[in-house]
Amino acid sequence: MRVERYNYRAQFGDVPDPLFAEIREMLLQGRYILSAEVRRFEEEFGDYLGIPHVRGVNSGTDALTISLLALGIGRGDEVITQANTFYATVAAIRLVGATPVLVDADEDTFLINEDQVEAAITSRTRVILPVHLYGKPLRMKKLLRIAQRHGLAIVEDAAQAHGARVDGWFAGTRGDLGCFSFHPSKNLAAAGDGGAIVTHSQDLAERVRRLRELGQRGQNNHVVLGCNSKLDAVQARILSWKLPFLDEWNKARRRVAQFYRERLEDLPIVFQATDPEEEHVYHLFQIRTLFRDRFLETLQENGIDAVVRYPTPIHLQPAFVDSGWRPGQFPVAERLARELLCLPIRPDLTLDEIDYVCECVRGFFTDLNNEDFNVSFRVVM
Ligand SMILES: *Cc1c(COP(=O)(O)O)cnc(C)c1O
Fold it and tell me: Which of 14, 143, 153, 196 is packed most tightly, with the most Cβ within 10 A?
């Protein structure tokens, strides 16, 4: 049996032909750039999130970069984020010329360690940039209080958390700006690159619009240094098509996660901590074990499309050597990078597939036990 991580076909629903017919018309009529389809998706996504302004951009990475530019962040400014995130979060900070300041991950939630944030603030700090990692929404209260006390902005990286909610708020909607990615792997996925920035501020929304459209105010009137980063119209149409399914898909992901948690809870593995008040959307289903590399190999040998996200924490990435970070500086992020592995999770994962994955996981740990490894079975933290 093979258990895949993605099923692109299923993302279009059972009857995709009307969508394909519309895309055909868009292609033939030249509706490519900032057409009505883009405005429509921006409105729909804003209605869904309950936020007035959405601007579609070319990718999640651009969403982060343009958000920082819209806040006027650049050389000499510091942006606080976490050592355990996807490369793009930190690359965006560097791309605008600012300095990323890292704090460690939280051992239980795998999100930013909020207790380390205040100590990382200096006179140059301008922004806090938390990540709703793996689809778990960060409770924003603490960071909002810290930001207010120190006069800082908040940019949320919600690239993995479309539709995740906690305390009645959607991930991405509490900070000054929220950033989404519609990369084909994400919970709400385009058929290519795509991203969006959301905000309550009309002023920031207008700055974002200008920045994504070559700094223009009116044609050929370039008033600021801008990028060219617009959500593609065909992608926008696809996203409008998929958005009505998002809640149902996220619920299905939660169901899969619940199966995994219940069936594997007696094994020497640890799951991302959850909160009864939250709606986690399980972009990734992480399990943590000291035997990660052998475990990954076994799963892959059995046809299970398991993967490690992310094997190298930010402070040890070659692209950031000039930042002066050292091994050992963010020990939790390093341990998570060594010990986490993602089991396949998709809304359409079948019970047979879940059973098969659980059987393989159980088999691995039973064999390990029988080998009488001279190591503690418990995950030591
Ligand atoms: C995917 C992702 C991004 C970047 O999105 P792209 O659309 O691939 O540029 C940024 N941050 C996080 C946490 C992500 O998972």
Answer: 196
Q: What is the pLDDT of residues 70-79, one digit of tens each?
A: 999 999 999 9
What is the spatial order of strands in the sheet that 285-288 belongs to?
270-271, 285-288, 340-343
pTM of the model: 0.96
Q: Is the CB of 302 within 6 Å of ligand 1? A: no
| Largest pairwise CA distance in the chain | 72
Q: With a 6 A CB cut-off, is 86 part of the ligand 1 pocket?
A: yes
Atom of ligand 1 nearest to the CA of 85: 13
Number of Cβ within 10 Å of residue 26's Cβ equals 18
Residue 59: CB within 6 Å of ligand 1? yes
Q: Which H or E run contains 203?
A: helix 202-212
pLDDT by residue (tens digit) across 162-174? 999 999 999 999 9
Q: Under a CB-based contact definition with an 8 Å cutoff, are residues 195 and 61 in contact? A: yes
**Cβ proximity of 103 and 120 under 8 Å:** yes
